Amino acid sequence: MTAIDITDGDPPSREDVAHRYVVDDAGVRAELDRLSRLAAMICETPMAAVTLIVGDKLLLLGRAGLSGSEAARDGSFCVHAMYQVGCMTVSDAHDDARFAQNPLVLAAPFVRFYAGEPLVADNGAPLGSLCVMDSQPRPSLNAAQVDALRTLATAAMAHLEKWRTAHDWSDHSEGSRRELDRLNRRFDALAEALPQLVWSAPEDGLSDYFNGHWCRFTGAPATASFGTGWLDFVHPDDVAAARQAWGDAVHDGGLYSVEYRLRRHDGEYRWVVARGLPVHDDFGAVVRWVGTCTDIDERVRTGELLELMSQELSHRIKNLFSVVQGLITLTMRNRPELADLNKALQTRMVSLGRAHDLVRPRVVGGVSWRSETTLHEMVRKLMEPLLSDGLPRLHITGDDVVINEQAATPLALFFNELATNSLKYGALSVEGGKVELNIVRGDAIAVQWREVGGPPITAEPVGAFGMRLAVLSVERQLGGKLELDWRHDGLVATAHIPVWQIGPR
């Protein structure tokens, strides 16, 4: 990508040219909005815009996911993008000195990622850009998305040139009609140039257009897919879902998105994601649908493999827990004097196994899902087998916190040691005793374990391994602080743990 120096400002001729593209036609603006939405959909960003730099302003001629129709020119991304040769990408605006203080970065919509394809007039004057934006940083667009953004930018310029030509040549001379016809043919050709399978349908949902890429993919003429004929190319197991999703979108006038397998010309079925957007008239009624089908077969196949590997890894980890438990039992079998140690080790292994089941990463449909297990849920699951008498002996109050995979093991050991100690010496060792657990989320997460109704404590236990393990879990592994208060009426243990150590990462 070649950059052009912009420090000397715009040449006078560029400003004159730019003023000729300030579109005031609602129909053209609607088409530019549609191209912006299509760019956002293909590039998987929440925001997109067709921009024009005029004077000290940045005009949004078309937009998706953005409010307002203009912004200040100074410090804008598009001023730089329009002077580039090729797509300009900013992976994280916070790390780019040119844009770190931009109001659009520091305040709503909090732009972090930007990719813009320059818009250039027929005479070579830079005008603005077709850009996509995200409030989250990301590396870059992939090659197909960059190609699609370039094609859509050319389509946007075709609309602008068409409007400018009609506006400049208002006398409808024969020459202007020939130029308009040329631009119309050019725009139609651009629709065929998109890398996706492109389709279109009127408001009733009966498709009437499929581009050449669709025809080459299916090996059939476009007419074979008109109406509901496209369903004949969908895998029989996916037809019902595809038909339902399309029917719901047409009925509700909302966005259309569904994944299904589409038969290729050689008979192989490939996974695609079909997405569509409604085009509305001035009164909000749907007049047409425009959409794409994108091949995602490789992603789906990779996802299935990852899901299988995730299940196999989890199975092997659980087997390791079982093997260790077996080794402990075998080793302790002829050592009756170590029965208490055997039981304690077995209990700890069971707790670790339950913690793993609660927070292990899962891959579903090719997507890795983070654990949504909370502290409340973990404590209940860990304590459930220990409180087998069915009495309400555990009361949890306060805030709940989603926990991550790294925090699961030390938290499981912490609660297991407190519960084991209580079952032996504390409140849970006698009838009527109970534990009150209160969780408060502030600058740190405060977890207070309070035992009530247990036998009187006459002295603080000395050198108890379980309590040392609890301290190790909180302070060494979670970077927190554990306070143990051995009161006469029961232990009060309070752990202060940094929020970032427990919450999702």
Walk me through the structure.
There is one protein chain. The protein has 505 residues and is α+β, with helices and mostly antiparallel strands. It has four domains: 12-172, GAF domain (Beta-Lactamase, 2-Layer Sandwich), CATH 3.30.450; 197-295, Beta-Lactamase (2-Layer Sandwich); 298-369; 371-505, 2-Layer Sandwich (Heat Shock Protein 90). The chain is 41% helix and 24% strand. It contains 14 helices and 18 strands. It has helices at 12-19, 26-43, 77-81, 103-106, 143-168, 174-193, 212-218, 239-252, 297-332, 339-359, 375-383, 405-424, 465-477, 499-502, and strands spanning 47-54, 57-64, 70-72, 88-90, 113-120, 126-134, 197-202, 209-210, 256-263, 269-280, 286-295, 362-364, 367-369, 394-398, 434-441, 444-452, 481-487, 490-498. Strands 3-2-1-6-5-4 form a six-stranded antiparallel β-sheet. It has a five-stranded antiparallel β-sheet with strand order 8-7-11-10-9, sandwiched between helices. A five-stranded mixed β-sheet has the order 14-15-16-18-17. A hairpin with a 2-residue loop joins strand 12 and strand 13 (367-369). It starts with 11 loop residues before the first helix and ends with a helix. Residues 1-9 and 362-370 have low confidence and may be disordered.
